[in-house]
Design a protein that fits this description.
Helix content: 25-40%
Strand content: 15-25%
Low-confidence stretches: none
Distance between the termini: 51 Å
Strand order of the largest sheet: 1-2-3-13-4-14-18-16-17
Order of helices and strands: HHHEEEEEEEEEHEEEHEHHEEEHEHEEEH
Number of domains: 2
Number of helices: 10
Number of strands: 20
CATH superfamily of the largest domain: Zn peptidases
């Protein structure tokens, strides 16, 4: 029935648009020559290697800094570093990061910035996480983060990752479940033989937030309870006290590694592609930029976007403005003033990059098909209306970059009265920066295993490379 409905809706859309330029748009796969096709698949392998390691904002920051240092970037510690061609790293408390290539022109003349976020929906641990549940099983109490469908997290092998900070100044990395021999954590579901009383729950409430509790242990000690044994083993493993879990940032994420999807291997399946996909493209484009650009190029990876870009590493913070101010003060010296910062921000051109929902082959009715983005058809210009769009002149400039570099592109507007809206771009536009929202489409967005087209990922990287060098 779903396939029939999908086919009917797409046929109606095609008929409604017959004669339009949009009906002649080709899949990005059909625009590749053999060398480019090989490059698409090679790029995807590097992307999968990154996303296999970058499971959170913390681990993404660490991996980005490692990649950047390998490519010759250095921590920005001294004003003398801010010279044309310098490749700099500005670390935002290990949870956000900005890569900078200083341009030939002063920063007040403009910059080219790609802003992304590298947090993703996940499940966090409460400060006192362990409870003894019926049946003698120890569970972990959690708080979910970001917009998730809670039922998708049941029966899923989960890894526990993050950091613990102790009162004696130690920083302890935690990772359980990502290596082949590690245990995993699983939120148990009810068996179909005994779930009659649960069947009247609605689609959105198959599991309640307080039921997202994964199994943490089951073996009692000779003279102690199961919960005592679990706490004893965890504290011994990391040489901590139970109270140290209060000063910890621990989260449960899907343990499964990235994988190719489909016989043709054209799709990457992985957790966290929203929005570490854009983050990797922005970073790789910076790393691969060899010549000194005319305008300073920046890749800004922010945190906490999925909950409103809050805190001091989110896009609503002053982290980016402070980075601009530091660079400007290095260039301007004693003559630096607040007006320099305001001029530099006003002359910045910004791509707010974030993935978007692609038309779903099983549930096409959730999109307005004539304005939906399709996997494989290129970079998405997001058109929300209602004040969230870039102005028309900046949109035209971005179209010119896409067209001049033969990068396929499309648009997306969500169904009216259904949803949609900007990402971190709103915070940047408030600084008087010129901002546009772009992305590439995903299937199963915000699920534990999202899907992207390899050719879209490669074309997004190509666009960012061209944008950094645009005049």
């Amino acid at each position: 029935m779903a396939i029939t409905l999908a086919g009917a809706l797409l046929s109606l859309t095609t008929a409604a648009q017959d004669g339009s330029v949009w009906t002649t748009k080709k899949s990005g796969w059909l625009l590749l020559n053999p060398d480019q096709r090989a490059e698409v698949f090679e790029f995807a392998e590097r992307y999968k290697a990154y996303i296999r390691t970058a499971k959170s904002a913390l681990t993404s920051t660490r991996e980005v800094i490692r990649l950047a240092r390998t490519a010759g970037f250095a921590d920005f510690n001294d004003p003398s570093q801010a010279k044309a061609g310098a490749r700099l790293i500005i670390n935002g408390r290990d949870r956000a990061v900005i890569l900078v290539i200083v341009g030939a022109e002063p920063l007040t003349n403009g910059s080219r910035l790609v802003g992304t976020h590298h947090d993703s929906p996940h499940i966090g641990l409460k400060a006192r996480p362990f409870i003894l549940a019926p049946g003698g099983i120890v569970l972990m109490k959690t708080v979910y983060y970001g917009g998730i469908k809670k039922y998708q997290w049941a029966n899923e092998p989960l890894a526990l990752i993050g950091r613990i900070d102790t009162v004696d100044g130690r920083v302890i990395d935690v990772s359980i479940g990502l290596n082949a021999n590690d245990p995993v954590f699983v939120i148990p579901d009810s068996a179909p033989h005994s779930d009659t009383d649960l069947r009247n729950r609605t689609y959105a409430n198959v599991l309640a937030g307080e039921e997202l509790n994964p199994v943490a242990g089951s073996i009692p000690g000779q003279n102690s309870s199961v919960i005592s044994e679990v706490i004893k083993q965890l504290t011994a493993m990391y040489k901590i006290q139970e109270e140290d879990l209060v000063s910890a940032e621990l989260q449960l994420v899907p343990a499964a590694p990235p994988a190719d999807v489909g016989v043709d291997r054209g799709i990457v399946g992985a957790y966290g592609q929203d929005d570490r996909l854009s983050s990797y493209c922005a970073v790789r484009a910076m790393i691969d930029l060899k010549a000194t650009p005319r305008y300073t190029a920046m890749a800004y990876l922010s945190n906490f976007e999925e909950v409103g870009s809050v805190n001091n590493t989110g896009a609503s913070s002053e982290f980016l403005n402070t980075a601009f101010a530091r660079l400007l003060a290095a260039q301007r010296g004693a003559s630096y003033s607040d007006l320099d910062l305001r001029v530099a921000l006003r002359n910045s051109q910004v791509v707010s990059a974030d993935t978007n929902d692609g038309i779903n082959p099983v549930f096409p009715q959730t999109s307005e098909a004539s304005n939906a983005a399709r996997l494989g058809f290129g970079v998405t210009i997001k058109t929300y209306r209602g004040g969230f769009n870039a102005n028309s002149e900046f949109t035209a400039r971005i179209r010119r970059v896409l067209d001049q570099n033969s990068i396929p592109w499309q648009t997306q507007t969500p169904k009216v009265d259904v949803g949609g809206g900007g990402t971190i771009g709103g915070f940047l536009s408030r600084q008087d920066m010129e901002v546009i929202d772009l992305g590439v489409p995903l299937l199963s967005m915000h699920a534990t295993f999202e899907m992207s087209s390899k050719v879209d990922v490669w074309n997004f990287y190509r666009f960012m490379s061209a944008f950094y060098q645009s005049q």
